[in-house]
Structure prediction request, 169 residues.
Amino acid sequence: MKKYLICLLLILLMGACGPVVSAPSMPHEMPDDFAFSIQFGVDKKNEINSYDGTVTKDLIADGTITADISLTSEEMNTVYELMREVNILEEKELIPDPIFDEVCVQEPHEDDEWKITMNGETIIISIDGTYCEPTKDAKQLIQIRDAVFTMIKDKDEFKALPDSTGGYD
Prediction:
């Protein structure tokens, strides 16, 4: 009877443990096929696209303009490292929890859509900027986007683009 109880206890413990699922990890070295695009802003009219080596700027009242602007290999490595630090492949919590059954929303708002390719896999990540207070994961991605955009804004080709006119209500 004792052996039976011990076996039953072991079976129950093994069943309760379940498999450990780990998030996909990013290689230490940037893969050869690493590329990304980030669409962002109101209606996602801005875009940084390393696949095509282009940047699209929202001119607001005057539409958009696209220019050939590429990141250097060093800049691509920097972007990859920023993504690796937050393990961008890991599932992200991008919708805030309600407080008192409500979530604060705002209009107009900016959205982000990321497309990232590495090791033959492509993932899409969307951040809904409707929420007044983004989650920790959303803030990390927005910080990366801002860092990439700063790299772009420092380039002469971007500085040559016309200024935006107007605004969003």
In short: The domain at 24-159 is CATH 3.30.1560 (Mago nashi protein). The CA atoms of residues 26 and 84 lie 6 Å apart. The longest strand covers residues 111-118. The radius of gyration is 22 Å.
